[in-house]
Amino acid sequence: QVQLQESGGGSVQSGGSLRLSCAASGYTFKNYCLGWFRQAPGKGREGVANIRSDGISRYADSVKGRFAISQDNAKITQYLRMNSLEPEDTAMYYCALGSFWSCSDLRANDFEHWGQGVQVTVSS
To answer: Is 11 helix (H, G, I), strand (E, B) or coil?
Structure first.
């Protein structure tokens, strides 16, 4: 059974930084895609960033230059470093795991496995 465990959420002031982590277990395929999504109250789930097992990454325009995704292949663990946070970044952040081809875009439908989510709150 695949499980994803997120950590690192919290509350910061505008301009601050946070790092999210997501550790996957039970996934047996060598090639995969890890992604981060977020959902603010009253809004749909938005793709933030993803990274393939070969290191190729993709970002939403709204976070380019501020967020950085990385991974530890040996552990199937991903990290999202979030800098220059803005109140608009406030949301529940979800970790997702899918096939290698799930990284072709930032659509939530492409991912099979999801974490429970961590809250990120940015105050002005």
So the answer is: strand
23-59 as b/e: b if 16+ CB within 10 A: bbeebeeeebbbbbbbeeeeeebbbbbbbbbeeebbb
Q: Are 24 and 51 in contact, with CB atoms under 8 Å apart?
A: no
Q: Give the number of other CB atoms < 10 A from CB of residue 110.
A: 18
Positive or negative, the CA dihedral 9, 16, 57, 103 is positive
Q: For 85-99, what is each residue's pLDDT tens digit?
A: 999 999 999 999 999
Rg (CA), the chain: 13
Report the pLDDT value the prediction gives residue 78, as an integer from 0 to 100: 94
Q: What are the pLDDT digits (tens) for 31-81?
A: 999 999 999 999 999 999 999 999 999 999 999 999 999 999 787 899 999
